[in-house]
DNA sequence: TATAAATGAAACCAAACGGTTTCCAAAAAA
DNA sequence: TTTTTTGGAAACCGTTTGGTTTCATTTATA
């Protein structure tokens, strides 16, 4: 029962789970509503939802016979922060420097 | 031989690969130099490097008997952009709104 | 109350993953 | 010219992943 606290990077590595995140970011849906957006089976979607809840990106709330799934994407800040650590790598200024180093310096300087 | 053009989200899902990215973001290293930072075997590291090259985050350059691995992290922009799509979810203002909706509205409004 | 809807849970499966050890080839150094 | 260094490649292995089908249970609805 102990929440495994799964890694958020691993959770978002699957394209289906990223799609689910996109869906739930717009509105809360029950399991079948989520599954309706995919060709895979409902149990498969349920497993994806469970993985997303294990890392806190989704919370579920049972009401009657339905399980409502709600996005809680604060955990994506970790991903954003990590990627932004390397922001310099995709800035135009650095691209220019990179080109300069690659093309204009003699090989011996590597 | 055909470059599979692996998904960058999947590539960064492994913590060892994220560490390799961190290493190579500071300086170019050959394979053994990279492997020295880990307890896993050199072939295991080589496999991680290959995965990183398949999605363009690392480029390799053979010189003599050495394989130099260089970070090219422009591909992380895709990750940053995707995560930032949901930036609203971790902003303090929205947190306050969320608390308001969760606690101050009657359940019937769900 | 009988039926339909929504979901959890279990058993199963093939493929991918992350790792290993072993061996070989090429390049550099002694 | 031996010997060492560097790393590619192959074979193998246990676990995880992402999917399935089937069945049981609970809750609404006719």
TrEMBL record, chains A, B:
First and last residue of the signal peptide: none
Q: Which GO terms describe its molecular function?
A: DNA binding; DNA-binding transcription factor activity
Q: Is DNA-binding set as a keyword in this record?
A: yes
Q: What are the HTH arsR-type domain coordinates in residue numbering?
A: 1-91
List the keywords (alphabetical): DNA-binding
- Quote the protein name from its UniProt record: DNA-binding transcriptional regulator, ArsR family
Q: Which organism is it from?
A: Dyadobacter soli
């Amino acid at each position: 029962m102990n929440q495994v606290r799964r890694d958020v990077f691993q959770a978002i590595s699957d394209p289906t789970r990223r799609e689910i995140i996109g869906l739930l970011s717009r509105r809360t849906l029950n399991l079948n509503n989520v599954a309706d957006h995919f060709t895979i089976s409902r149990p498969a979607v349920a497993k994806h939802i469970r993985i997303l809840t294990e890392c806190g990106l989704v919370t579920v709330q049972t009401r009657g016979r339905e399980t409502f799934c709600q996005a809680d994407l604060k955990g994506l800040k970790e991903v954003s922060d990590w990627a932004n650590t390397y922001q310099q790598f995709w800035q135009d200024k650095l691209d220019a420097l990179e080109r300069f180093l690659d093309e204009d310096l003699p090989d011996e300087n590597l």
